[in-house]
Amino acid sequence: xxxxxxxxxxxxxxxxxxxxxxxxxxxxxxxxxxxxxxxxxxxxxxxxxxxxxxxxxxxxxxxxxxxxxxxxxxxxxxxxxxxxxxxxxxxxxxxxxxxxxxxxxxxxxxxxxxxxxxxxxxxxxxxxxxxxxxxxxxxxxxxxxxxxxxxxxxxxxxxxxxxxxxxx
Length: 168
Ligand SMILES: [Zn+2]
Description:
Elements: H1 3-6, H2 16-35, E1 41-46, E2 49-55, H3 68-80, E3 88-94, H4 98-107, E4 111-116, H5 118-125, E5 138-140, H6 145-158
Parallel strand pairs: 3-4, 4-5
Antiparallel strand pairs: 1-2, 1-3
Helix pairs in contact: 2-6, 3-4, 5-6
C-alpha cells in the first residue's frame, strides 16, 4: 500500500513560518552531514520560538535511537522542564519514522511538518520503513522538500557501495 498516496496534498502555499522553521531544521541537518552523521535535522517551536534544534547523532553517540526528532524532544522537554510539549510544532527535514512519531505522541505534539518524505529516504538509501501517522497528529509536507532531498542525495551519494546508512 502506498501511504504517500493516501496523504492529502498540501493545502495551497506553504505558510511562511513553516518555510522559516524548516530552514532552522535544514541548518542543523547540514551540520550533521559535515560531521558524518545522517543529514536529518529537527527543531521544536512554541509560539514562534525555537525551543530546541538537533540533528541525527546515531554514529557519534553511538545510539540507534539518536534520531534528530528524539534528541530535539529531549532538549525541548529540558528547556520547558516538563515531559509535555503541548502546542509545539516539530519540524523535521525528513518525515519522522514510527519511533519518532510515537515520541511526538507521548510528548503531546500534535503537528509535525516535514521536508523530504520517507518515500524519498527509502528511494535514496533503501533503509527506511513506512508507517501511517497516528490519527490525532497532523503530518504536513513536503516543506522545502527539494532542499531536504538534495541533502539526503549528497549523503547517499557519498556512501561506500554496499554500506547501509548509519553503519560506521
Ligand atoms: Zn526517527
